């Protein structure tokens, strides 16, 4: 059952990665100013691709699944903190701005998720590498 899940998740990861590559090439080729949209898509989709392929390649090992869960958890926690700060920060700092909370939804939330996943991945690798040495 785990092997079937790994195959399906790997296929989804490859499809999402292909979508991101094709969309990036279209933005480069068309010379249109869709860089903000592309950055948001990359911040949301790159962790999906990375974790899907990570699970597909190494998900058969229980310690690797624990690392994946730790890195995803860090991404969710940091992303939520950034989302809340980006959503309520503009409301507190500039109450007259009606589009201020969009910053948290579209910029700081996905960016925080990406940053948290990167930090979680590095931290998961450092924790297990140090435990092997000692």
Please provide the ordered H/E string of secondary-structure elements: HHHH
Shape, please?
A: flat
Question: How far apart are the first and last residues' alpha carbons, in Å?
Answer: 35 Å
Backbone CA Rg: 18 Å
Our count of helices gives: 4
Strand content: under 5%
Main sheet, how many strands, which sense, barrel?
Answer: none
Describe the structure.
The protein folds into two domains: 1-57; 61-134. Helix content is 87%, strand content 0%. The protein has four helices and no strands. The longest helix is centred in the middle third of the chain and has 32 residues, at 62-93. The radius of gyration is 18 Å and the shape is flat.
Output the keywords:
0% strand, 2 domains
Provide a compact summary of the structure:
The chain is mostly helical and 134 residues long. The protein contains 4 helices and no strands.
Write the layout of secondary structure elements.
Layout: H1 2-30, H2 35-58, H3 62-93, H4 102-133
Helix pairs in contact: 1-2, 2-3, 2-4, 3-4
């Amino acid at each position: 059952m785990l092997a079937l899940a790994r195959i399906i998740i790997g296929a989804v990861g490859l499809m999402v990665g292909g979508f991101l590559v094709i969309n990036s090439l279209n933005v480069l080729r068309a010379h249109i100013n869709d860089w903000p949209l592309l950055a948001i898509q990359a911040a949301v989709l790159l962790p999906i691709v990375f974790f899907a392929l990570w699970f597909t390649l190494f998900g058969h090992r229980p310690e690797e699944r624990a690392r994946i869960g730790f890195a995803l958890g860090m991404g969710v926690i940091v992303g939520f903190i950034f989302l809340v700060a980006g959503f309520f920060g503009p409301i507190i700092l500039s109450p007259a701005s009606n589009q201020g909370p969009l910053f948290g939804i579209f910029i700081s939330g996905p960016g925080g998720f990406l940053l948290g996943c990167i930090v979680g991945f590095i931290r998961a690798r450092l924790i297990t590498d140090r435990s092997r040495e000692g």
